[in-house]
Amino acid sequence: MKITLSLIAALMLPTLALAQAESSAPVAPPPVPSLASDLAAPVAPATPEEERLPTPPSPDAAVETGAQAPQETLAAPANGADGADVDTPTLEPQALPAPQPEAVPETFPAMAQQAYQSALTFLRDGGPSIWAIAALSVITLALILWKIWRLACLGAWSRGKAQQAVLAYEAGNFDRALALVTGRRGVRSKVVSAALNALRTMPEEHAREETARVAKRELASARGGLGALELISTIAPLLGLLGTVMGMIAAFQALQSAGSKADPSMLAGGIWEALLTTAAGMAVAIPASAALTWFEAVIDRIRRDVEDGATRLFITPKPQKLRLAAE
């Protein structure tokens, strides 16, 4: 029995020693791909435009990219560990726009000085005709203002007293009618007062003539100044046209004297300067013509009121006291 156990132990010892040797041997690590040969190094873009605008990958590149994706995953930590330079885009801070200075409002003296310089340049470039048109503009403004004041004094926009006097006369109250218009400065009141006085002291035929005379005189006085406005509205465009023609002549003379070295801008500058006088003449004539039309309409309304009042006075039967006085 002992001999048998000894033989079995002798046979098992080499097997156990071999198994122990295999278990104690170190395990070799798996092979690591080489960074220089096996991994694809990233290619830096040639220009900033290529870096910002990547090209679409081709099908072959997509296959290679899919195959090399695990290797690039391993290469990233390796590069970081080795301290290799990696081209990464850097974002530069954008400069903020400089604050704009606030616009300083122009003062009234500065605006007045600028307007004065513009007017002086306009007068200097326009020539003699523009000075005459400027004088006409001042006269036109003065005439318009004076005419408005004059018509207001003549009662152009008030007809109440004259109409009340006519109504009182038609009602038979001659004394009240005369008292309403006596001493008043309006055209209507003066004509009605003259007609009432003529009816009291003259026969009807003579009273009509006297009323017509007073009416013509007052209406002629109301039309004072309209002739000057009509003249200005007529000659202002003609003066502007004259200045334009003279400026064109001067521009073409300068162009001719320049000869072959003529500059078209010289001709254009002379033309637009010459046209300034035409524009100025029309700018004076248009307000003058408009004011003239308005004043004539106001005076025409006064004339109609005077005719209406005088006619009503003469067609109304005279009171008994006036008939006795006239006889």
What's this, in brief?
It contains twelve helices and no strands.
Blueprint of the fold:
Blueprint: H1 2-24, H2 48-52, H3 59-82, H4 108-126, H5 128-153, H6 160-170, H7 174-181, H8 187-201, H9 204-222, H10 226-258, H11 264-315, H12 320-326
Helix pairs in contact: 4-5, 5-10, 5-11, 6-7, 7-8, 8-9, 8-11, 9-11, 10-11
What's the β-strand tally? Answer: 0
Q: State the share of residues found in helices, binned by percent.
A: over 70%
Separate helix tally? 12
What profile does the largest beta sheet have?
Answer: none
Strand content: under 5%
Low-confidence stretches: 32-42, 47-54, 57-87
Mean pLDDT: 74
The N- to C-terminal Cα distance equals 199 Å
- Can you tell me the overall shape? elongated
Description:
This protein has 327 residues and is mostly helical. The chain has a domain at 122-326. It is built from 12 helices and no strands. Helix 5 runs parallel beside helix 11. The longest helix has 52 residues, at 264-315.
Please describe the structure with a list of short key phrases separated by commas or semicolons:
327 residues; 12 helices; mainly alpha
